[in-house]
Amino acid sequence: MKKFLIYGALFVLPLIVALVSLECLLRQVPNPYKYKYEWMQKNTEDVEVLVLGSSHTFYGIRPEFLDGKAFNLANGSQGMKEDLFLLKYWADRYKKLKTVIYPISFSTWFVGRELEDDIESYRCRYYTIYMDCNLYPNLPYYNFELADYRTAKDKTTKLFSPEEDPGYDEYGWGTTYKLSKKKTDKWNDGTEAEAAVHRHTAKSWDHIDLHYAQMKELAGFCKSRNIQLILVTTPCWHSYYDHLDQKQLAKMYELTDQFRKEFGVIYLNYLKDPRFEADDFFDSNHLSDIGASKFTKILNKNINEAIRK
Asked: For the domain bounded by 47-113+166-308, which CATH number is listed?
């Protein structure tokens, strides 16, 4: 029995060493979560403008075109819970923060699932591993890169074939939605827009109170520190907004206007802005790199105008 245990240990030990080594190597692959955490650790005291939210702002707002020292803390599928955590994490270190930009999308007030219950729940581990986040259960799935075969495989590929573009720039803006990579077939036949509209249409309105309370917490945090909260609806293409459920859209506007009046925030709506053309979009509801530059310049001007009123 003793020999069996010894042989067993000799067999398992190299495997454990290999797995631990691979886990450590995968954590060295550049990713926006790690970069954004490290950037904030170094620059919190000097940052003046923070962009929060999900993919609409991650890919749609380029901080380099905003006045002041601005940074993009948004991430794909990032929810209000994660936004609140990130904003409050450095609460005691803000010295110059004066503006927070937050997206209001078609689904914002209606999202029925937390990130850990979503099809992109693998993203939860990125907050745990790289952003010192304690929002999720203390389980292996949320604490190890190797806990998900699909993402681990993708990162292993990047480990041995590094990409020149890590997917984000020095300001935290997402760089992968380039016009040159646009899937024109799905754009032309409208299948992508149809899928996006279906995905963003609420199954029920049962979660409105929860999200309103979370937004209230966000607004309260900003108000207590004299930070201007700017709500923004980013531009979309007509193949997307023409097919939105009109009752949900009307409710989105109703709740946003109610929130704007109640908490004295600024709301800027570009959903159907005619200034944006086909090449300004990567898909029906996300801006391309060209569109993001164009949009951010417009947004910056409008923010300055709104604040001066």
From this structure: 3.40.50.1110
